[in-house]
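Notes for week 9. Today we move from apo structures to complexes. The key idea is that a small molecule is not decoration. When we ask for a structure prediction with magnesium ion present, the ligand SMILES becomes part of the input, just like the chain. The input block below holds both the sequence and the ligand string. Read it once before you look at the output, and try to guess where the molecule might sit.
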Amino acid sequence: MKKLHGLDYTIAFAGNPNVGKTSIFNNLTGMHQHTGNWPGKTVSNAYGKCSYNGKNFLLVDLPGTYSLMSNSSEEEIARDYICFGNPDLCVVVVDATCLERNLNLVFQILEMSLNVVICVNLLDEAKKKSIEINLELLSDLLGVPVIGTIANKPKTLKKLLSVISSSLENKNNNLTIPSKLKYSPKVEECISMIEESIKSKLPDEKQYLSRWISLKLLDENISINEALKSNLHMDIDNDSDIQEKLNQIKSNLNDEASSITSIRDSIVSSIVSEAEKIREKTCIFANSKYNLKSRKIDKILTSKKFGIPIMIVFLAVIFWITIAGANYPSSLLSNMFGAIQDKLLIVFYNLHIPEFWTNLLIYRYVSNCNMGRLSYASSYGYFLSTVYFA
Ligand SMILES: Nc1nc2c(ncn2[C@@H]2O[C@H](COP(=O)(O)OP(=O)(O)OP(=O)(O)O)[C@@H](O)[C@H]2O)c(=O)[nH]1
Ligand SMILES: [Mg+2]
């Protein structure tokens, strides 16, 4: 869609699956995109318009993703839009009931966007679970505006629009600077070895992506090469300068008895520990016992010792239910319909319903156990049981 009179701004809505992106998008645009209480409802970008304070916004509802590593087509769609779709601002919608898990994506988007607003949605659910989030502190720690919302409360969405609007003004004045996650000294050293070469190959308006691209190359995320080639005409595979630097990094790592895998692990553990730190600082569990039970269960179910045996037992139970267990309710229903068929037959005879209709509506069969006795299954019962057991 074209920008109107230079007044329109494009706002991308990114976030984990099932955090309420589409619900917010629908309420802001008046559209009716599908929402659903299961992850992965939205699988492609949806576009809609809304206005606030004389500004026209084009809103883009992105598919929900847990990361932007391009492990799936949704991740690729979201990553390409955020990096190369040139949105003026990216709203990252996070779930207030599990902030820590959502921060992984937040850190990635802070690395690949200049203008970000964090929208902490599902505040009503968090309240029910006695979770309070210090939004101001979260904003200070992340270096971007943070606003709390409940998707079906227009008042909170108005505040979101107001924050978006002032953030866009700040962007024009270069006032917001998203915090960049600090990795281990080794990773930072590797980034600094390659970042300048990447920056020099990027167009001016995309130079801010250099750190993120460096990380992806260190992570050996090769799909980024294809994306850079098709979107920015930057051919990393055939760039001798960048390839040389990458080889140098790899050989240095081998000399030091570390490897690309250890760099990758180090990147992940920095993200996890930073997310944990931020959650500890900003989330208050008013009811400290809340979640205790499910955390204990989680610990057992995901432990190395019990996790796999419990999974095998569960699979065995499901297998048994599918093969043998289902016979019990089946025979119960079969007996029930059997009882109905006899009664129906008596009713039909008593009402003197012509044989034609009786034959048409009641399925006749000869009972094997009672030779000579004619038994009838009501077509209704027969029909129901056929549908049920099919
Ligand atoms: N209680 C409550 N429910 C919400 C809120 N926001 C969204 N929901 C519900 O959460 C579910 C998921 O909402 P969606 O808008 O489909 O989530 P999404 O982020 O677009 O999900 P994907 O498309 O899978 O990425 C729906 O059942 C919504 O009604 C909220 O603020 N409070
Ligand atoms: Mg959606």
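The longest strand covers residues 9-15.
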